[in-house]
Design a protein that fits this description.
The complex is a heterotrimer of chains A (202), B (656) and C (333). Chain A has one domain: Cytochrome c oxidase, subunit III, four-helix bundle (Four Helix Bundle (Hemerythrin (Met), subunit A)), CATH 1.20.120. Chain A has 202 residues and is mostly helical. Chain B is mainly alpha-helical and 656 residues long. Chain B is built from 19 helices and four strands. In chain B, strand 3 and strand 4 form a beta hairpin. In chain B, helix 5 packs parallel to helix 18, helix 8 packs parallel to helix 11 and helix 12 runs parallel beside helix 15. In chain B, 64% of the residues are buried. By secondary structure, chain C is of the alpha+beta class. The longest helix of chain C has 33 residues. Classes of the chains: A mainly alpha (202), B mainly alpha (656), C alpha+beta (333). The interface between B and C is large, with 96 and 91 residues.
Chain lengths: 202, 656, 333
C-alpha cells in the first residue's frame, strides 16, 4: 500500500503531565481497582453490621479515638504538603523544592506509619474474635497496605531524586506519586468514619 | 441508524505546537529505506532465550498467552471427557467420588480463569495496538509481567491437581464446604491463590488495554470512528476493573478464615455464608460478560468483512455494548434465588436479568441485517458467526427462562443450567473465538489456515457441541442435579447421558482437526498478503505478520472503515523517533496528536517481579508471614522495574 | 432448520414428562404453578428463536444481484431501521409478559397461613436428612430420617436448617428448591395434591457424597397419613426373639448408640439418622440403596464400601453380632 505524508509529529513534546500522560491513566486504572476493593470491603462491613444487633457485639468495646485522630490529622497535614509538592513538580523547574518536598513527605509518612501502629491495639478487638473484629481489621489492614506501599514507593523515588538529574519525566513521576498519596488520604476518611465513629453513633 | 459516510477525508489533524522547522514532504519509500532499518534495530528483541524472557513485544506475549491458554483448554477438555465417561452409565465406578469432584472443580476453574478470559485477552492484546494504529501497548512491561503471573497461577492449580492436593470444592467454592471446618489441608487455598494470580494478570491487561485505547489511537480515529472490536475491548476492560476485585476479596477472605481464624463467613460469630456468595457472584456475573463481550467484538469485525459492508447500526451496536457492560453488574443475585433472600428483591433481579436480553437481541438483529443487506462470502469465519447466532441465541433464551425466579427454583443446580451456560459460553465466546482464529491467523503468522479443514472443524464442532449439550436441557427437566458423580438407574437418565458423551467425542475430533489445521498451515499454509480478506480495519494495513514496530509511520484515519475508504494511498504522519522506542499519545475523544512517549525497551524486571509475586502468593498459602518477608523481593523487583534511566546527578549533558 | 427446531421442542415436551423426580409432572400446587411458567416460557422463547432463525436463513439464502467488487459503505436503509424498531418493540413486549407472569407465579408460591400448615423441620447433614414433625402439641412431635410423608391437600410448611454445609431441598414434582444454609432459617411451602411416592434430591454440592443424598416423599390420603403418624409416635418394637434381643444389646453397647437414636432402646445419639422405624422406610443411606434385609446387612458391614466417604465408620462386629443387629433393626417397622 502506498503512503502519503500529511503531517509530522517531531515537534510534539516528549513528556506529559496528568491527563496527557499515559502513566497517569495507568495509575488511574489501578486506583479504580483499589477503590473498588475498598468499596466492596466497606460493603462487607455494611452487610456484617446488618447481621449483628449490637455494634460492636459483646465482648468488644468501641475503639479508642486518640491514635485514629492523630493519624487523621497527620494525613490531612501531609495532604497540604503533598499538594504543594505536586504544584512544584508541575512547574518542572525547581529541583530543590521537589527534593525538599519529597523529603518532607517521607518524614510525615513515617510519622503516620508509626502512629498507625498505635491504632491497632486501640481497636479493642482481634481479627479472630468475631466477624466485627474480622471486618474492622480487614479495613485497617487494606489501608495500611496502601500506606506502606506508597511510603516505600516514595523512599525509592527520593533515593533516585537525590542521586540523579531531574528531567521533566521525573517531575511527572513525582506528580503522579502525589496523586497516589491523595488517593491514600481520601480512601482513609470513610474508613476512619466506619471504624471509629459508626460504632458510637449506631 | 446509519448515515451516509463522510465523503472527504477531512483536514489532517495537526500537532499541538507549531513546527520548529519544516519537515520536507518526501515520497514515502525514500524515508522508509534508511529509517526502517534503524526502526528494526530499535524495536528488535535480544536473540535467543534471553530475548524470549525479556521481550515486551505485545505480539510475542500474546502468542504465548494464546498457546498456553489453548493447552489448558485441552487439559480442561480432557477432564470433561473423563467426567462424561463416568456419567455414561448409572452407578459407574470409573472414577471415585473424590476424583470426580476434583475433576469438575478443575474443569470449571480452568475453563473460566485459565482459558476463557486469558485467551480472549490474548487475541485482544495482539490486535488492539494494530487496530488502533499504535506501535505498542501503553505498558509493555506490565503485559510481560501479567503473562508470567498468569502462568504461575495456572501451574499452581494443575500441579496441585497432579500431586493430589488439588481443590475439590467446585469452581465457585461455596463456604462452609470450602471453609476451615469442612475442607482440610490446602486444597481450597490452592484454589483461592490461583484466583489471586489469574486476577492480577487479568487486571493488569485490562488497565493496559484501557489506556492504549483511550490514549494511543491513530490521529483521526475519533471515538465514533473506532472499530466495534475496540469498543467491546474498552467496555470489557472497564468491567474487568470493577468486577475482579470482588472475587479477589471473596477468595482472600476465604483464605483468611481458613488460615487466620477470621469469621467473615462464620454464622456463629456474626458472619454469613451468603456474604461469600454475594462477593463471588458480584464478580461472577460480570465475568461471563467479560468472556462474552470480546466474542461480540470478533463477530462484528468478521461480519463486516465477509458481508462486504460495515455492520448495520454502528451507534446502536456501541450503545448495546455499553448497556450490557452496565446491566451485567445488576444481575448477580439471580445465582442466589434458592438461598432464601427476600422475594421482592429477587423479582427485581428477574427483571434486570431479562432486560439484558434487549441489547443482545438488538445486536443479533444488526448482524443478521448486515448479512442480509450485504454480499456474504461464506468462508469459514462467517460460518462461525452463523453458528454463533444459532447456538448463542438458544443459550440466551434458556437464560431468560432461568431468569424467572419460580422457574429457576426448579431449574437451578440441574443439568438445564449446565446446558444454558455452555450454550452461551461456547456459543457466545468459543464459536466467535474459532472464527477469530481463522480470520486473524494470516495476520498473526503470514499464512492462511486451510479452508477445507476449517469447514470440517466448524461442522464437526457445531454438530458435536449440540449433540453433547442439547440433551442436558432435557436431563435437567427430567430432574438430574448438577455436580453428581453418578446417578441411580431407573431414572431414565442413561440415554441422554450417553448421547451427551457421544457429542463430547465428536467435539474432541473437531478440536483435533483444528490443531492439525494450525500445525500444517504454519508450515505449508498459503502465504497471506497484508490483507487477504480485503478487510476494512487498520490492522490489515500492517504486514503479515506485522513488524515488531507494527507500523513504520503513524497512519491517519478519516473513516470507520479506513482500508475501504482509502484503498490506494494511506495517509501517514512521520516524526516518531527511530533511534529509540517511541509511541504517539493522542487525546481520548478526538485522537488528536498530543505528545510523544518513550516506550520501554526489553527488560528482565517483569519476569523477576513475577517470580517475587509468585513467592509471596505461594508462601501465603502456608503462612501469613510470607506477606511480610515477601515485601523485600517485591520491593527490589519493582524498584528495578521502575528505576528511570537518566543521567546521574552532576554529569554534564548536552541538551537533546 | 425450523422443522428440526420444532421436532426438538416436541421431544422436549414428550420425554421426561412423567417421573418421580421431574418438574414436568406436577403433583402439587407449587409445581403446577411453576409448570405454567415453563409452558409460557417455552412458547414465547420458541417464537423468538423461530424469528431469529427465520431472519438468519433469509439473510443467508437470499438471492442477490452480482456481487459488488468493492465493499460499499452503508447506505441509508429505512426498511431495516423500521424492522429494528419493530423487533425492539417485540422483545420489550415479550419481556414484559414474562416478567409479569413470573412475578405473579412467584407470589402464588407462599400463600398459606402459618396456623393452617403442617409444620416440619428438615435439617441437612453430610449426607442425610433429619426430619422432625413439629406440628400440633409437643407430645405429638416425633423425629424420623431420610423420608417424609405428607397428607394430600394440606400445605406442609417445611423449615430448612443445616447441620454442616449448604444443602438444598428439592422435590421437583411438588415444588421448587430451597437451600439449607447454616446460620439461616429458610422455609418451603409444599401443597401436594396427587397421591404417590416422589423423589427429592439434594441440589447444592455438599461434598463427597452429594450424589447420594436424596429422600422419598410419600403423599397419601389424610387418613393414611394419620395412621402413619400415629405409628411414628410409638416407640420401637420390642425384640420378639433371642437374636433380636441380642442385636438390641449389641446396638446399645457398641458404637451404634453413640450416633443413632432408637426410641425405646438405650440409644440416644443425635449425629446420625433416627432408626426407630428404620424397617418401614423404602430405602437406606438417604435413598442410596433400596431397603432390604440383605442391603441392610451389607450397609452395616461396610458403609464405606457402599457410600465412600460417608460419616458412618466400619464398626467391627463378629458375624453373630452383625446378624443379630440386622435382625433387630429389620424388626423396627
Amino acid at each position: 500500500m502506498r503512503t502519503n505524508v500529511v503531517g509530522d509529529l517531531y515537534a510534539l513534546p516528549d513528556h506529559a503531565f496528568g491527563l496527557k500522560s499515559i502513566i497517569w491513566w495507568g495509575l488511574m486504572g489501578f486506583m479504580m481497582i483499589e477503590s473498588m476493593g475498598f468499596v466492596l470491603a466497606l460493603g462487607a462491613w455494611v452487610y456484617i453490621r446488618g447481621l449483628n444487633p449490637s455494634w460492636p457485639p459483646p465482648p468488644d468495646a468501641v475503639p479508642g479515638l486518640i491514635p485514629g485522630i492523630v493519624v487523621t490529622v497527620l494525613f490531612l497535614l501531609s495532604e497540604v504538603v503533598n499538594r504543594w509538592l505536586a504544584a512544584q513538580a508541575k512547574k518542572k523547574e525547581d529541583d530543590h523544592a521537589v527534593r525538599l518536598g519529597v523529603t518532607a513527605m517521607l518524614v510525615l509518612g513515617l510519622a503516620i506509619v508509626v502512629a498507625r501502629m498505635f491504632e491497632f491495639p486501640q481497636l479493642h478487638t482481634r481479627w479472630d474474635v468475631n466477624a466485627y473484629g474480622s471486618v474492622v481489621w480487614l479495613l485497617m489492614f487494606l489501608h495500611t497496605l496502601h500506606l506502606i506501599t506508597d511510603w516505600i514507593d516514595t523512599v525509592v523515588l527520593g533515593a533516585w531524586l537525590y542521586t540523579h538529574e531531574i528531567e521533566p519525566s521525573q517531575h511527572s513521576e513525582v506528580y503522579d506519586n502525589c496523586g497516589y498519596w491523595t488517593f491514600v488520604v481520601v480512601s482513609w476518611l470513610p474508613i476512619w468514619f466506619v471504624v471509629y465513629i459508626a460504632p458510637r453513633v449506631m | 441508524m446509519t448515515r451516509p459516510p463522510k465523503k472527504t477525508t477531512g483536514p489532517a489533524p495537526s500537532p499541538r505546537r507549531p513546527k520548529k522547522e519544516a519537515t520536507p514532504v518526501v515520497a514515502a519509500p525514500v524515508i522508509a529505506a534508511a529509517a526502517d532499518a534503524q526502526l528494526e534495530e530499535t524495536w528488535a528483541d535480544a536473540p535467543g532465550f534471553w530475548g524470549w524472557l525479556t521481550t515486551v513485544d505485545h505480539k510475542r506475549i500474546a502468542r504465548r498467552y494464546l498457546v498456553t491458554a489453548f493447552i489448558f483448554f485441552l487439559l480442561a477438555g480432557l477432564a470433561a471427557v473423563a467426567m462424561r465417561l463416568q456419567l455414561s452409565k448409572p452407578e459407574n465406578t470409573l472414577l471415585s467420588p473424590a476424583r470426580y469432584n476434583e475433576l469438575f472443580t478443575i474443569h470449571g476453574s480452568t475453563m473460566m480463569f485459565i482459558f476463557a478470559v486469558p485467551i480472549m485477552e490474548a487475541v485482544t492484546v495482539f490486535l488492539i495496538p494494530l487496530m488502533v494504529g499504535a506501535r505498542a501497548l501503553a505498558f509493555p512491561r506490565l503485559n510481560a509481567y501479567s503473562y508470567w503471573v498468569y502462568l504461575a497461577g495456572a501451574l499452581t492449580l494443575w500441579i496441585g491437581f497432579i500431586l493430589n492436593v488439588g481443590p475439590d470444592i467446585g469452581w465457585f467454592a461455596y463456604t462452609p464446604l470450602s471453609g476451615p471446618e469442612y475442607s482440610a489441608g490446602h486444597r481450597a487455598d490452592i484454589w483461592a491463590q490461583m484466583i489471586t494470580f489469574t486476577e492480577i494478570a487479568a487486571l493488569a491487561v485490562a488497565v493496559n488495554l484501557m489506556a492504549t485505547i483511550l490514549k494511543m489511537r491513530a490521529p483521526g480515529m475519533t471515538l465514533s470512528r473506532m472499530p466495534l472490536f475496540a469498543w467491546s475491548t474498552l467496555v470489557t476492560s472497564l468491567m474487568t476493573i470493577f468486577a475482579l476485585p470482588a472475587v479477589m476479596l471473596a477468595s482472600s477472605l476465604l483464605m483468611s478464615d481458613r488460615l487466620l481464624g477470621t469469621h467473615f463467613y462464620n454464622a456463629a460469630e456474626g458472619g454469613d455464608h451468603i456474604l461469600y456468595q454475594h462477593l463471588f457472584w458480584f464478580f461472577g456475573h460480570p465475568e461471563v460478560y467479560i468472556i462474552f463481550l470480546p466474542g461480540l467484538g470478533f463477530v462484528s469485525m468478521i461480519t463486516a468483512t465477509f458481508s462486504r459492508r460495515p455492520v448495520f447500526g454502528h451507534i446502536v451496536m456501541v450503545l448495546a455494548l455499553i448497556s450490557i457492560g452496565f446491566l451485567a453488574f445488576g444481575l448477580w443475585v439471580h445465582h442466589m434465588f434458592a438461598t432464601g433472600l427476600p422475594r421482592l428483591g429477587n423479582s427485581f433481579y428477574t427483571a434486570a436479568s431479562m432486560a439484558i436480553a434487549l441489547p443482545s437481541g438488538v445486536q443479533i438483529f444488526c448482524w443478521i441485517a448486515t448479512i442480509w443487506s450485504g454480499r456474504p462470502v461464506f468462508k469459514t469465519p462467517l460460518l462461525w458467526v452463523i453458528g454463533f447466532i444459532v447456538t448463542f441465541v438458544i443459550g440466551g433464551l434458556s437464560g431468560v427462562m432461568v431468569a424467572s425466579v419460580p422457574l429457576d427454583l426448579q431449574l437451578h443446580d440441574t443439568y438445564f443450567v449446565v446446558a444454558h451456560f455452555h450454550y452461551v459460553l461456547i456459543g457466545g465466546a468459543v464459536f466467535p473465538l474459532f472464527g477469530a482464529f481463522q480470520y486473524w491467523f494470516p495476520k498473526f503468522t503470514g499464512r492462511m489456515l486451510s479452508e477445507t479443514l476449517g469447514k470440517w472443524h466448524f461442522w464437526l464442532f457445531f454438530i458435536g457441541f449440540n449433540v453433547a449439550f442439547f440433551p442436558m436441557h432435557i436431563l435437567g427437566l427430567m430432574g438430574m442435579p448438577r455436580r453428581v458423580y453418578t446417578y441411580p438407574s431407573g431414572m431414565g437418565w442413561e440415554r441422554y447421558n450417553q448421547i451427551a458423551t457421544l457429542g463430547g467425542v465428536i467435539v474432541v475430533v473437531s478440536v483435533l482437526s483444528f490443531i492439525v489445521n494450525v500445525l500444517t498451515s504454519l508450515r505449508r499454509g498459503v502465504p497471506a498478503g497484508d490483507n487477504p480478506w480485503d478487510a476494512p480495519s487498520l490492522e490489515w494495513a500492517a504486514t503479515s505478520p506485522p513488524a515488531p514496530y507494527n507500523f513504520a509511520h503513524t497512519p491517519v484515519i478519516s473513516s470507520r472503515e479506513p482500508l475501504w475508504e482509502q484503498r490506494e494511498v494511506l495517509p501517514i504522519m512521520t516524526g516518531l523517533s527511530t533511534a529509540e522506542r517511541e509511541v504517539l499519545v493522542t487525546t481520548p475523544v478526538d485522537a488528536e496528536p498530543d505528545n510523544r512517549q518513550s516506550s520501554p525497551d526489553p527488560s528482565i524486571w517483569p519476569f523477576v517481579a513475577a517470580i517475587a509475586t509468585t513467592m509471596v502468593l505461594i508462601g501465603t498459602i502456608f503462612s501469613e508471614w510470607a506477606l511480610v518477608w515477601g515485601a523485600v523481593p517485591l520491593t527490589i523487583a519493582f524498584s528495578g522495574w521502575f528505576w528511570p534511566k537518566r543521567p546521574r546527578r552532576g554529569a554534564k549533558q548536552e541538551p537533546q | 432448520m425450523k422443522q428440526a427446531a420444532s421436532g426438538l421442542i416436541a421431544l422436549l415436551l414428550l420425554c421426561g414428562c412423567s417421573g418421580v423426580q421431574t418438574p414436568l409432572d406436577p403433583a402439587g400446587d407449587q409445581a403446577a404453578s411453576i409448570h405454567t411458567m415453563w409452558n409460557v416460557m417455552l412458547v414465547v422463547c420458541s417464537f423468538f428463536y423461530a424469528l431469529v432463525i427465520g431472519g438468519l436463513l433469509w439473510a443467508v439464502v437470499r438471492r442477490r444481484r452480482e456481487p459488488v467488487p468493492e465493499p460499499q459503505a452503508s447506505a441509508h436503509d429505512p426498511g431495516i431501521e423500521r424492522t429494528l424498531a419493530v423487533w425492539t418493540g417485540l422483545i420489550l413486549a415479550g419481556l414484559t409478559l414474562l416478567i409479569s407472569w413470573s412475578f405473579f407465579v412467584d407470589r402464588s408460591l407462599a400463600q398459606t397461613h402459618d396456623d393452617q400448615a403442617l409444620h416440619i423441620t428438615v435439617t441437612g447433614y453430610q449426607w442425610w436428612w433429619r426430619v422432625e414433625y413439629q406440628d400440633g402439641p409437643v407430645n405429638q412431635w416425633f423425629e424420623t430420617a431420610n423420608e417424609i410423608h405428607l397428607p394430600a391437600g394440606r400445605t406442609a410448611r417445611i423449615k430448612l436448617e443445616s447441620g454442616d454445609v449448604i444443602h438444598s431441598f428439592w422435590a421437583p414434582n411438588l415444588a421448587g428448591k430451597m437451600d439449607l444454609i447454616p446460620g439461616r432459617h429458610n422455609v418451603l411451602d409444599i401443597t401436594p395434591r396427587r397421591i404417590g411416592v416422589y423423589r427429592s434430591q439434594c441440589a447444592e454440592f455438599c461434598g463427597m457424597q452429594h450424589a447420594h443424598m436424596a429422600l422419598p416423599i410419600t403423599v397419601e390420603s389424610p387418613e393414611a397419613f394419620k395412621v402413619w403418624r400415629a405409628h411414628q409416635l410409638q416407640a420401637a418394637k420390642a425384640p420378639t426373639s433371642q437374636q433380636e434381643a441380642f442385636g438390641k444389646a449389641v446396638f446399645e453397647t457398641k458404637a451404634c448408640a453413640f450416633c443413632h437414636k432408637i426410641d425405646g432402646a438405650d440409644a440416644g445419639g443425635r449425629t446420625a439418622p433416627n432408626l426407630t422405624h428404620l424397617a418401614s422406610r423404602p430405602s437406606l443411606a438417604a435413598d442410596a440403596i433400596p431397603y432390604s434385609r440383605g442391603a441392610l446387612a451389607g450397609w452395616i458391614s461396610d458403609p464405606q464400601g457402599m457410600k465412600p466417604g460417608t460419616k458412618m465408620p466400619n464398626v467391627p462386629l463378629t458375624s453373630a453380632e452383625s446378624s443379630a443387629v440386622v435382625a433387630y433393626l429389620d424388626s423396627l417397622k
